[in-house]
Design a protein that fits this description.
Blueprint (H helix, E strand, L loop, with lengths): L1 E4 L2 E4 L3 E4 L2 E5 L10 E4 L2 H9 L6 H18 L3 H9 L6 H15 L4 H24 L6 E5 L5 H4 L6 H9 L4 E6 L6 H13 L3 E4 L4 H6 L5 E4 L3 E3 L4 E4 L2 H10 L4 E4 L5 E2 L16 H4 E2 L2 E2 L12 E4 L6 E4 L2 E3 L11
Parallel strand pairs: 6-7, 6-9, 7-8, 9-12, 10-13, 12-17
Antiparallel strand pairs: 1-2, 3-4, 4-5, 10-11, 11-16, 14-15, 17-18
Helix pairs in contact: 1-2, 2-3, 2-4, 2-5, 3-4, 4-5, 5-7
The structure holds 5-S-methyl-1-O-phosphono-5-thio-D-ribulose.
5-S-methyl-1-O-phosphono-5-thio-D-ribulose binds next to helix 2, helix 6 and strand 11.
């Protein structure tokens, strides 16, 4: 991804391995500060997933793969490392896919640094392909609505939902992006807007509850979001608030797409209602920054994700092409 710091252009990934450390762009402090954090142990990697230094399904998967590589380097028991990494966040499927793939490769005598690098390179390439396929859905002057951050920060590089938008911009199309702020952690306002500014893509951050208004006024042509876990019937979990955007899109006759690599699809689950949904700290809702925004006695609920039923999904943009939910078939992706 393009990062411009004090006039210098850099091409960086969300995380990478260097000198037996995993280096992460610290996503907790963007957009105000750009800093890298280094993980030197499996416990550091797990902590960085839990505290959301790194977030977004494919990037969490990459962190899991590098975490397993670090376990092999440091001589940690691989089953123990896998269990620790899998305990970090429950919803995004890529984490489980990546850790299990590393366990399999270790079982065949593989070097996990090499295996993790290969896995991470593959994700970046898959996201680039998602951009190529998704670009076909974006017309010149399209107004696109997205939710949360499904950009390069969430996916190593390119993005999932943002990949088609990047590709459209690079192919000289004019695009405009409505960026849902994405309460309570504000990944849209903080991270998606930051990525779009790095690329010079025109956009506006909107309150989460304004999306319906712009759809109703005919100002949104297409909705593209990411996914944390897609299941066999095409239902999918994504950042809380996605479900209502999908219902509003259908009500207003607007095509609604989710974009994800095939490694986000969990064919073992038949229905979205089976996806474990992470509930996070009440204080993410009760506070904005350090400031309490409700009576101190008030309790809060904070589901990190919701499930959008397949009936609201026009298509799923993957590295292998664009599919209707009912076209998902495990055999097709082997
Ligand atoms: O809690 P997060 O920030 O890890 O959640 C990420 C999302 O839900 C994103 O919307 C994204 O679509 C999935 S990752 C590309």
């Amino acid at each position: 991804m393009l990062v411009i710091m004090t006039g210098t252009e850099m091409n960086l990934r969300a995380l990478w391995m260097e000198d037996n450390k995993v280096r992460f762009i610290d996503q907790k402090i963007l957009p105000h500060r750009f800093e890298l954090l280094d993980a030197e142990s499996v416990e550091d990697v797990a902590t960085f997933i839990e505290d959301m230094t790194v977030r977004g399904a494919p990037s969490i998967g990459a962190a899991g793969a590098y975490g397993m590589a670090m376990a092999q380097i440091t001589g940690m028991d691989l089953q123990e490392a896998a269990e620790r990494l899998k305990r970090t966040r429950p919803t995004a499927f890529d984490l489980f896919y990546a850790v299990d793939r590393m366990l399999d490769e270790a079982g065949q005598g593989g070097n996990l640094v090499t295996s993790a690098e290969k896995y991470v390179d593959e994700i970046a390439e898959k996201c680039r392909m998602i951009g190529e396929h998704g670009n076909a859905l974006i017309s010149n002057n399209a107004r696109i609505l997205t939710h949360c951050n499904a950009g390069a920060l969430a996916t190593i590089d390119y993005g999932t939902a943002l990949a088609p938008i990047r590709a459209a911009h690079h192919s000289q199309k004019e695009v405009f992006v409505f960026v849902d702020e994405t309460r309570p952690r504000l990944q849209g306002a903080a991270l998606t807007s930051w990525e779009l500014i790095q690329e010079g893509i025109d956009h506006a951050v909107i309150p989460d509850n304004a999306a319906g208004h712009y759809m109703q006024r005919g100002e949104v042509d297409i909705v593209i979001v990411g996914a944390d876990r897609i299941v066999a019937n095409g239902d999918f979990a994504n950042k809380i608030g996605t479900y209502e955007k999908a219902v509003l899109a259908k009500e207003n006759g607007i095509p609604f797409y989710t974009a994800a690599p095939v490694s986000t699809i969990d064919f073992s689950l038949k229905s979205g209602m089976d996806i474990p949904i992470e509930e996070r700290s009440q204080d993410e809702v009760r506070l904005v920054g350090a400031e309490l925004i409700c009576p101190k006695e008030a309790s809060a609920r904070n589901p990190a994700f919701d499930v959008t039923p397949a009936k609201f999904v026009t298509g799923i943009i993957t590295e292998a092409g664009i599919f209707r939910p009912e076209e998902l078939d495990e055999e097709k992706f082997k």
